[in-house]
DNA sequence: TTATAAGCGAGACGGTACGTCAGGTCTTTAA
DNA sequence: TTAAAGACCTGACGTACCGTCTCGCTTATAA
């Protein structure tokens, strides 16, 4: 997947088909929707993509890496619309994230690759760089806005700021994932409001609807 | 797995071996430690347990159900020691939960079965009844104590109380799981302290170490 | 199957059910008709007979012995009606034997147990005593009649007589079995006439229809 | 098993290994010798041949077809040496055939596949084309020679000639098989002489040693 | 009347082989 | 060198029967 933008000396032989790459990733998402993670097979993906198995393996050595790449792009669609207040901004991103987790591709794939990653450092790194770290931007942006609005104080040190962002990311992402996939309950407006209130106000100040 | 307490008329034929049940669950945990979820095979578990494959399949039709049952009992070890304050109680259970997730059996298995459950309602129900619902006791007990201590107000209605407990459970469990397995960062004393502070005080009152 | 007619001192305990014996043999024949030799299973026979597997195994240790016993009785139905001449007598028994081999029970079972017997001396002996030797009576009777009619000379010695009977038995039985099962062609009146002519007249005098 | 002589456009993909074919058939014969028909397993054959089970199943769907093909070639070794007279020629082929049936591969396999063929038309056809029909050449050649020598008359019609050959084939093959496998008695010089005398001279002219 | 002993139906049990399927690799021909 | 096609090896799958066992129960004879 490391294609140099301008190859100084183009490698000899037939060049790789860019169309194949796209077809494979599309086919992977389709297969995830239809079959789910555990019944998705490399042979089936190759067939859907109209590509030989060798072509697939030349690009992705393992099913889990293929799925991470196929799914990662979906997470980049998440946005943080400015809705005027920290509370509303968080609520908005929670609902967006929940909607993403409702899609069958992500629902079945995310936990599966995370599970695999507990025994595979390379996969863990790929998930982190392709998905997790990229989405921290939402937390950073949200905090910036809240600080600009005066809803949150500025951190005293960059280290503390980073640590803080990580913590908040784990809390928001973790809560939504747990509600949606483990508890298997809907993440609707009500839940999002209650969660946001808890997050902003803390246990002491909780006053759910 | 539903053995009536007092079978009025015991079923005919040779009864199932209780020893086999225990041996299989033990073997499953061992295999999880050594091989992880994805490399665990039914045949291997049977062999480790000194049991025929048919004996295993007679009890558990699928690998994921077997693993849920094998792992569920570990979650029952979680306890909520009374450490004097809500903050310290939460911190304590967070660290306990993190320690549990550090164990190779649970680390590799939990996310995997959750992933499978997204396409399998029966499995989802089994996870809920064997693991999730059983651990909500910790939230309920913690809240009770905090209310007795005057740290938290009493809920106005039972419905609200239940909804509230579910929310808090998702937040705590979700955050710890996300930190430990997705972000793959250690859940140590410092993190636990920061998280607890956030949970109790909310975003506004966050003052991490 | 060696139950003395009048047991001097009947063994203690509950006696074996004679009904079970009959039910098992009937069930075996039924199963042969429906399933054929290779798909017949001990468990299925037991079930058809309304009998536990243990009851079956207490009587017959192996499927092949059971089948020999179940089928042997059918061969005893063969008879040698006196049709007036050696030629016609042979012809008659050939057609009878062919009809027996057309029955699905025997067709599927006979060659199968013979095949098994090539590696199992005990089975070989059982086949010989339960089927083969019992049917030599037909040859002996036929020869007797032919000799009485003056169609055949009397043998010079008992040894030669026995050897001769064995040979003729092998030729008749072998030819019919080979035609019916190996060549898989019908043993009809025409064939029986031609075969009989060849057997009686020899290659030199063959004048088929 | 239908390999076109000159494939105009060779099929795409890796061609099947001819070495695998040979190794499998050899392994099958070895396994027949060591284990016999009923204990021969596809997995074991594959292992002996140093081939994956899938490779085996790609060529032979059933054990019985595999065995027919493995054994058929042995029957092609039968020859009809010119020993000067019809009587001696028949005697010679009888002994050869008996020797072939003494080999453990054929002894255990022949009756077994015939037994299976009673319920499987495709197998029946395979046996006929691979074994039975090919060996009728022996009868045809023997008759030709005898007719040239003036020992046998020429048939009046081709139909009659064919029918006659089939009959004689069934009688010879049937008698030898029955003697060797069903009666389980040796086919030695003496028996061969007696049988030949009976075949040529008929029951009336029988004068065994 | 009560042992004692075997038979019996039911079904669990440890095994072996089945035939299939998926993961990856290798070997063809064509581009 | 890549690509498509498909053969190949490996290893797990879940099932079917095997023949044995362990239950609770029945049915005989002998004490």
Describe this structure in words.
The structure is a homotetramer of 209-residue chains. By secondary structure, chain A is mostly helical. Chain A contains 9 helices and no strands. The first copy, chain A, has helices spanning 18-35, 42-49, 53-59, 63-75, 86-102, 104-117, 121-149, 158-182, 189-201. The radius of gyration of chain A is 20 Å and the shape is elongated. Chain A binds a DNA duplex (31 and 31 nucleotides) through helix 2 and helix 3.
* H/E element sequence of chain A: HHHHHHHHH
Largest interface: A-B, 56 and 56 residues
**For the record, what CATH class of the largest domain in chain A applies?**
Mainly Alpha
CATH homologous superfamily assignment of the largest domain in chain A: Tetracycline Repressor, domain 2
Broad structural category of chain A? mainly alpha
Separation of the first and last Cα atoms of chain A: 48 Å
Beta strands of chain A, count:
0
Please compute the radius of gyration of chain A using only Cα atoms.
Answer: 20 Å
- Please tell me the overall pLDDT of chain A: 91
CATH topology annotation of the largest domain in chain A: Tetracycline Repressor, domain 2
Largest sheet geometry of chain A: none
Query: Which outline of chain A best applies?
Result: elongated
Helix content of chain A: 55-70%
pLDDT below 50 for ≥5 consecutive residues: which ranges of chain A? Answer: 1-9
Strand content range of chain A = under 5%
Total individual domains of chain A:
2
Number of helices of chain A: 9
GO molecular function (chains A, B, C, D): DNA-binding transcription factor activity; transcription cis-regulatory region binding
DNA-binding region (chains A, B, C, D): 41-60
Domain HTH tetR-type (chains A, B, C, D): 18-78
Protein name (chains A, B, C, D): Transcriptional regulator
């Amino acid at each position: 997947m490391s294609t140099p933008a301008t190859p100084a000396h183009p490698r000899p032989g037939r060049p790789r088909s860019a169309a194949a790459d796209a077809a494979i990733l599309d086919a992977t998402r389709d297969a995830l929707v239809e079959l789910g993670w555990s019944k998705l097979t490399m042979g089936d993906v190759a067939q859907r993509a109209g590509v030989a198995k060798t072509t697939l393996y030349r690009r992705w050595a393992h099913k889990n890496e293929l799925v991470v790449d196929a799914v990662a792009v979906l997470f980049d669609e998440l946005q943080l619309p400015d809705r005027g207040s920290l509370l509303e901004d968080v609520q908005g991103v929670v609902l967006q994230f929940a909607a993403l987790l409702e899609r069958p591709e992500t629902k079945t794939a995310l936990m599966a690759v995370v599970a695999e990653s507990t025994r595979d450092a390379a996969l863990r790194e790929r998930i982190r760089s392709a998905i997790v770290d990229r989405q921290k931007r939402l937390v950073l942006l949200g905090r910036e806005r809240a600080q600009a609005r005066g809803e949150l104080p500025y951190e005293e040190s960059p280290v503390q700021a980073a640590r803080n962002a990580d913590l908040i990311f784990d809390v928001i992402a973790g809560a939504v994932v747990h509600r949606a996939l483990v508890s298997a309950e809907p993440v609707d407006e009500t839940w999002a409001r209650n969660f946001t209130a808890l997050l902003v106000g803390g246990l002491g100040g909780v006053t759910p609807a």
